[in-house]
Amino acid sequence: MSCPIEDYALIGNCESAAMVGRNGSIDWLALPRFDSAACFAALLGSPENGRWQIAPTAERHISRYYRQGTLVLETRFDTPGGTAVLIDAMGRRDGCADWVRIIRGERGRVTMRMELVIRCEYGSIIPWVRRLDDGRLTAVAGPDRLILATPAPVHGENLRTIAEFDIAAGEEVPFSMTWSASYRPIPPSADASDTIEKATAGWLEWSRSHKTEGGGEWSEAVLRSLITLKALTHLETGGIVAAATTSLPEQLGGPRNWDYRFCWLRDATLTLYALMNSGFFEEAAAWRDWLLRAVAGAPPQMQIMYGIGGERRLIEYEVPWLKGYEGAAPVRIGNSATDQLQLDVYGEVLDSLYQARRMGLPASQTAWSLERALVEHLETVWEQPDEGIWEVRGGRRQFTHSKVMAWVAFDRAIRSVEEFQLDGPAERWHIHRERVHEQVCREGFDPELNSFVQSYGARQLDASLLLLPLVGFLPAHDPRIRGTVQAIETSLLKDGFVARYNTESAVDGLPGDEGVFLACSFWLADNYILQDRRDEARLLFERLLALRNDVGLLAEEYDPRARRQVGNYPQAFSHVALINTAHNLTRAYGPAQHRAESKETIEPDSNSAQRTT
Q1: Sequence-distant (≥ 6) Cβ neighbours of residue 456 within 8 angstroms
Q2: Res 609: pLDDT
Q3: Burial annotation 131-144 (CB, 10 A radius, 16+ → b, else e)
Q4: What is the CATH number of the domain that holds 477?
Q5: What 3-state class would DSSP assign to 291?
Q6: With contact defined as beta carbons under 8 Å apart, do 242 and 264 qualify?
Q7: CA 52 from centre of chain
Q8: Is the same domain home to 400 and 355?
Q9: Residue 398 — φ and ψ, nearest 5°?
Q10: Are residues 282 and 244 part of one domain?
């Protein structure tokens, strides 16, 4: 059986990622990219679907941590006979991916057992294993080759590779696994110690760019979230995947299981703020450039998400041989939501490119040409119903949040013309902006509830309405916004955290329930800050921080009843929201205020370097 989701730690090389359990087992690894077929898939099945475990044979007490400022993981096993530490890291070379493990003795003597089960193509294919003349093992299945190098004595047993050995204080036993394409020459194996030290040095060098003052007293939590965000970023393309996993359930045992190893456009603006306010302009520029390449094409063909390299075909299918995490079936590969109409992405793209200019990224004429084309297309489609921010599968509706983000698209296009002297029909866009605003306030607000509602004519609430003041649609102190926040507090809080919406309304067309959505809970804290309810914001933020696991990671959702993290993991959106809320709490003028205001409303002061370009 897999570990609880929160018992996993992430290691990666900015091309792929592995999930390492507290029990020393790597239960998920897709190579060579985040979205490749997994060769270890025990996370969604059983050990027979592939894993790599190194652990003591005796009872043990386990503790673990990342090396400060890095993605190098150390797991400490304390047993009656002694103590051993397992060090995990990943590296990369041209055409190869390496992940290395060193078991180091610290006290006494500990008997260790290694069990390696390689199953390619999401746990379904048993590879052909042979021993090379130099003693290494190779496992080949189709295009994939894995190579194991270790001085530990290994042997085959029931289609597994096993090693048992003792480790004494002061001793080390290294293990190195290398992926390469099977049709290329067999590469040399990585030196485990050298790979770990280079990974440590590389992460430390990267972390030094972090503006520690931005996170205030929570700077360590912010840095860990930034490292997680960097780990989910592809080195070459700049694309940031939503999570490292697929099909971890939003409800334990339920069917709400999706593949999140792709790049969503709606993450763009919040991600830019998280990166740039923390000092990582290079990553922000790479994300902006990825967005421009992915979206390039005819505006009607813009998708809500793309592959890591900007791929458009993300065909969804099920893999029946995997029983699902704790029986949560089906396991899905790909994501058919890519074909949905979600009007909010127009606002996200226009907002992200506008804010990129405003915060100092180099100008791009290509970007403005694309923006103009998108806005001109939006003029013809903004009144259509869509599937909305939550990608519902219960039919299109006139979602209030979608219309608000259409307003954002027109607003940011107008701002770009007026503030940066770009060429465009601002007068015509003014007319559309006013029409959208008037319609939302008329059709999306329920006077009886004193709240905006999920969709026109409905009485259900939706946590996406918390974004209205954050994008500048209405001021946070507007009575309609105050009423909406109060209604959400009354109707959508579970154990003090925010659910996206009431699943009993059947709006999403899916059976079952789900946990509270962590990003939405951070948005509520942001609203408290804008409404001068800072004590409540701080309390909620600290409760959210307490949901992180022992190495600082968050999933997409949290189940208050089971007290478990649920959903895909670690979730970029949750960590982006954590970073931005920390900045909102610790800065006199945080990203929530900055995003909602136009350039002219910003008055220079001692923090002006953080505010204007």
Answers
A1: 397, 398, 400, 443, 444
A2: 30
A3: eeeeebbbbbbeeb
A4: 1.50.10.10
A5: helix
A6: yes
A7: 24
A8: yes
A9: -90, 80
A10: yes
Token look-up 């065909």 returns 315
73 and 147 inside one domain = yes
**Same domain membership, residue 229 and residue 271:** yes
Query: Which two tokens mark 535?
Result: 């004590």
H-type alpha helices, 24-142: 120-123
Q: What is the pLDDT of residue 598?
A: 59
Q: Which amino acid is at 364?
A: S
Contact (Cβ atoms closer than 8 angstroms) between residue 267 and residue 283:
no
Helix (H) or strand (E) holding 103: strand 96-117
98, 219: one domain: no
pLDDT value for 137: 97
- CA 573 to CA 555: how far, in whole Å? 9
What pairs with residue 155 in β-bridges? 162
Q: Residue 511 burial by CB count (10 A; 0-12/13-18/19+): exposed, middle or buried?
A: exposed
Please state the pTM of the whole predicted model. 0.95
Q: Are residues 372 and 499 in the same domain?
A: yes
- Please count the structural domains in the chain: 2
The backbone torsions φ and ψ at residue 195, rounded to the nearest 5 degrees and listed phi first, read -60, -45
- State which of 159, 184, 205 marks the end of a domain: 205
205, 235, 266 - which closes a domain? 205
pLDDT at residue 603, rounded to an integer: 35
Query: Which domain CATH number covers 180?
Result: 2.70.98.10
From residue 193, give the alpha-carbon distance in Å to each of 174, 196, 268, 283, 436.
Answer: 8, 5, 37, 28, 59
Interatomic CA distance for residues 557 and 233, integer angstroms: 21
| Residue 362 pLDDT | 84
Tokens read off for 585: 């709490």
**Which segments of the chain have a pLDDT < 50?**
599-613
Tokens of 361: 């990224």
For residue 268, the model assigns a pLDDT of 84
One domain, residues 126 and 257: no
Question: Residue 111 sits in which domain range?
Answer: 5-205
